[in-house]
Amino acid sequence: MNPAAPGPLPVFSESRTDARQGGVHTISPVTDDVKIGLVGFGFGGKYFHAPLLAAAPGVQFAGVVTTSAQRQAEVAELYPGVPTFASLGELKASGAQAVAISTPAPTHVPLMLEAIELGLAVACDKPFALDAADARAVVEAAEKAGVKLSPYQNRRWDADLLTVKKLVETGELGEVFRFESRFERFDPQGTPPAAGGGILRDFGSHLVDQALYLFGPAASVYAELDTTEEGRLDSRFFVAVQHTGGVRSHLIGNWVEGAPGPRYRVSGSRGSFVLTEPMEGQEALLIEGLNPATAADRWGVEPEENYGRLYRGDAGTPVPTERGSWDTYYPAFAAAVRGEGEVPVDPRDAIASMEVLDAARRSARTGQVVNLGPAD
Q1: CA 24 to chain centroid
Q2: Residue 24, SS3?
Q3: Which of 59, 81, 105, 109 has the fewest CB atoms in 10 Å of its CB?
Q4: Which among 180, 181, 190 has a CA at the least distance from the CA of 255?
């Protein structure tokens, strides 16, 4: 079944108040919308970027760079009046100030470097690069040019991750010693798409980023990695990260898992939090054809039956899920482009994540633990 077309989407330019993570913040009236274009209109561009760009306060959806006639037609149908361009140069010439990149993984680095050279601020989807060396080269190029750059790590604003973050920060679990996190699915074809660069770069980019975001830098990495029958792309992995602060993260990705495990199990000295549901719902809403404006009160809200539980040797107590907020990324990125604050995700975080993923490949190849830094 084809997802419903999102149709024309409003751009908010007036003051609004939004409940987020137990508090209330106000988005001030915006008079200078930042013109942000999009490179790529495949699955990621169409469902994970375009709707959020079009509905973001402080953002003007400036157009899509694609040379595909089919995708040009889709842009015209879904976003009437939004232009398409054949190149980043054309996008820049139209007045765009920034660009979001959602293209196959091997194209990310050359596109980011081209955008930086043009003076366009950049938000790049995962995997940010294919290895840490390339990630570092892009970050240094942006710093030298004085161009804003941010990895698009939208899953830092997943409802379930925000719930884990709150439990950790409030001390509900006591001292956390192990973090287990999974992206697992059952695909009968058994072949991850090549555009993602393999499941370790695809799923792993999110899982590693979330672990480092919650528990800090990695001291060492151990990994096991399997490939598809053709041997070209990895299809499942286990990565153990020892953080410098003492927490151990066990990260699992699998493209063909008949019995997916819990999305999270977070173990601490005072209890453990377990979330069995495989994924929170913002992705599903976007694929359904909705966006933060049209979904309204449904956006980022998880039903009670999807709540995780806090266990202390008993049957467990339901923990209400925090509200997911993917819709805060592009307003924050636009504000940074205007000179109002920092980018929502530090580009050097992408280097740190890629160093872990590079170490995971070395560990899987040698069967050895790879040390990245001293542990406390």
Answers
A1: 24
A2: strand
A3: 81
A4: 190
CATH number, residue 184: 3.30.360.10
Q: What is the model's pLDDT at position 374?
A: 58
Alpha helices in 196-346 (DSSP H): 199-215, 282-288, 292-295, 329-337
Q: What are phi and psi of 140, to 5 degrees?
A: -65, -35
Shared-domain flag, residues 168 and 122: no
The CB density around residue 314, as the number of other CB atoms within 10 Å, is: 9
Residues 172 and 223 in one domain: yes
pLDDT given for residue 230 in this prediction: 61
Number of domains within the chain: 2
Residues 239 and 164 in one domain: yes
Predicted pLDDT at 354? 98
Whether 11 is in a domain gets the answer no
Residue 226, domain member (yes or no)? yes
Tokens of 53: 């760009």
Q: Report the chain (376 residues): mean pLDDT per 10 consecutive residues.
A: 35 31 34 92 96 96 98 97 98 98 97 98 97 98 98 97 98 98 83 79 96 98 84 86 98 90 96 90 95 94 96 93 97 98 98 98 97 68
Q: What is the pLDDT at residue 9?
A: 33
Q: Which domain holds residue 181?
A: 155-325+355-371
Confidence at residue 234, expressed as pLDDT on a 0 to 100 scale = 84
- The reported pTM is 0.89
In the numeric block, the tokens 């041997």 are attached to: 231
- Within a domain: 376: no
Residue 281: alpha-carbon gap to chain centroid: 14
Same domain, residue pair 105 and 168:
no
106 and 77 Cβ atoms separated by less than 8 Å: no
* Cα 52 from Cα 293, distance rounded (Å): 9
Question: What is the pairing mode between strands 271-275 and 23-27?
Answer: unpaired
32 and 169 fall within a common domain: no
Domain presence at residue 150? yes
pLDDT, residue 194, reads 77
